[in-house]
Automatic annotation (TrEMBL):
Nudix hydrolase domain mapped to chain residues: 47-186
InterPro entries: NUDIX_hydrolase-like_dom_sf, NUDIX_hydrolase_dom
Identification of the protein by name: NUDIX hydrolase
Required co-factors: Mg(2+)
Keywords: Hydrolase
Organism: Brachybacterium kimchii
A Pfam family annotated for this UniProt entry: NUDIX
């Protein structure tokens, strides 16, 4: 195959769709797919709203990108049965909200910080075989304290914050101590780009 190296849009025809399970946050849908002539199959997957995440980077005084600091949050994730170091992130579940605005909102709500500058870093599909989820990850710079009256509740009530050197985070990823997909993808992207 020739051409550029890129993922391509182009869903195959869906012959039927039903909701296999209706959940509090997302649903599981069942599609019968007309894949190719004579080839049909059924797939069940999470119909996900999508999410936005933000890598807040403080590179002031850093001699190289490994010396820059990254703002991490520590949060319990029940499906995995683990507490993860992650990036601030949240569902795109506010009608009409731009993903970049959602990333900035999540940064403030989860960390009490704001960014002077936000720019798109990358998109990931963390589990394309079982979920329609797409996470848009943004790079935030010019980080400062935010004025907010937001109160974290439920699973967010125990969020811990930590500034860590990018080099320390890279070492922890390489050693298998940090495994959150969004964090791993964003940190590796920033390290590769040298931003």
């Amino acid at each position: 195959m020739t051409g550029s190296l890129r993922d391509e849009d182009g869903a195959r025809p869906v012959l039927s769709r039903s909701t296999a399970f209706r959940g509090a946050i997302w649903d599981v849908v069942r599609d019968e797919v007309d894949f190719a002539p004579g080839v049909r199959f059924t797939r069940e997957y999470i119909a996900h709203t999508g999410a936005a995440a933000v890598l807040a980077l403080d590179d002031e005084g850093a001699s190289d990108v490994r010396d820059a600091r990254v703002l991490l949050i520590r949060q319990y994730r029940h499906p995995a049965g683990r507490t993860f170091w992650e990036l601030p992130a949240g569902l795109l579940d506010h009608e009409g909200e731009d993903p970049m605005q959602a990333a900035g909102r999540e940064l403030t709500e989860e960390t009490g910080h704001r960014a002077e500058h936000l720019r798109h870093l990358l998109d990931i599909h963390p589990s394309a075989g079982s979920s329609s989820e797409r996470i848009r990850i943004f790079l935030a710079t010019g980080i400062g304290e935010a004025v907010t009256d937001f109160v974290r509740e439920d699973e967010e009530s125990e969020i811990e914050l930590r500034w860590a050197r990018l080099g320390e985070v890279l070492d922890a990823i390489r050693d298998g101590r940090l495994t959150n997909a969004t964090l791993v993808a964003a940190v590796l992207a920033v390290a590769a780009l040298g931003v």
